[in-house]
Amino acid sequence: MSLTEQTRSEILRVDSVSKTFGAVRALHDVSLSVSEGECRGIIGANGAGKSTLFRIIARHMSSDSGHVSYRGKSLAHSPAHSLAGMGLAIVFQEALPFQDMTVQENIMVGGHSTLRHGFLAAMLKTPSRRVEENEIRTRSWEIIDRLGLSDIANEHAQELPFGMQRLVQIGRALCGRPRLLLLDEPASGLRFQERNALAEVLKKLISEGLTVMLVEHDVRFVFSLAESITVLDLGEVIAEGTPQEIRENPQVIEAYLGTAANA
Ligand SMILES: Nc1ncnc2c1ncn2[C@@H]1O[C@H](COP(=O)(O)OP(=O)(O)OP(=O)(O)O)[C@@H](O)[C@H]1O
Ligand SMILES: [Mg+2]
What we know:
Blueprint: H1 3-7, E1 10-21, E2 24-35, E3 39-43, H2 50-57, E4 65-70, E5 73-74, E6 88-91, H3 103-110, H4 119-124, H5 127-146, H6 162-175, E7 180-184, H7 192-207, E8 211-215, H8 219-225, E9 228-233, E10 236-241, H9 243-247, H10 250-257
Helix pairs in contact: 3-5, 3-6, 5-6
The structure holds adenosine-5'-triphosphate (ATP) and magnesium ion (MG).
C-alpha cells in the first residue's frame, strides 16, 4: 500500500454482504473498501452481481447479511431518498423520472437535495430560498456545459435516446454535489464520441476530488479511468488490484476478460 493510500480516509465500506434470489446466489460474502478520491471499477460478466451490489448500497433492497457503511456510519437505517443529501449519488440504467420536463429542469431537480431552506420557505418563496434556487439554476447550466448537453438543454427527456437520458441522469446526480458517485454502465448506449466526452468529464471530476464507483462492460473505458478494480464472478469477489494487475490475472482472464469483446 502506498503512502497516499494509507493517508486517504475510507468513504465506503462493504462488509461480507450476501444476497440470494430464490436459488440464485447474486452476492456471496462480498467485501470491499473505497477511499476518498478513488475511482473504483467493478467488472464482471452478465449476472455477476454488480447491479445488485449497487442496489444494496443505494438502499433499494436490503442484503440477507452483511453491512454497508458510508463515511464511517452504517447505512442500515438510512432510507434511499436520504442518500443524495448525504452526498451519495447513484445512477442506474433507468430512464429519467421526469419525462415531460426538459433536460435543464431534470438536472435542476438533482440540486434540491442540497437545499438548506425547506418546504415552508419554498411555499412562501422567501428571499433565501430564491437565492438557493438561483444557485442551483446556475449550477445546472454549468453542468450542462460540462457534459456537452447545451444543444439539447431545452428538449424534453422523452425525446432523447436512452444513452443520452443516462448522461442527463449523471448531470442530475452532479447537481446534488455528491462526494461519492456510483455509476451503473454509464457508457452503454453512448456513441464513441459521447463515450470519450463522458470519460473526459469523469477524469476531470475525479481529479477535483470526487470519488467514483463505476460498473462498466466497456473494459477500455473502465481501465482508462479506474485506479483500482474489483472483479465479481457469480456473486463473489475473485480479484482486486490495479488495472495492470487485473489485466494480467489468469483467473480474471479465464472468468471474464478472455471473453470480453473489447478487452
Ligand atoms: N430482483 C431480482 N429477482 C430475481 N433475480 C434477480 C433480481 N435481480 C438480480 N437477479 C439475479 O441476480 C444475479 C445478479 O444480477 P445483477 O443484475 O446484479 O448482475 P449484473 O452483474 O449487474 O449483470 P449485467 O452485467 O447483466 O448488468 C442474476 O442471476 C440475476 O438474474
Ligand atoms: Mg447490471
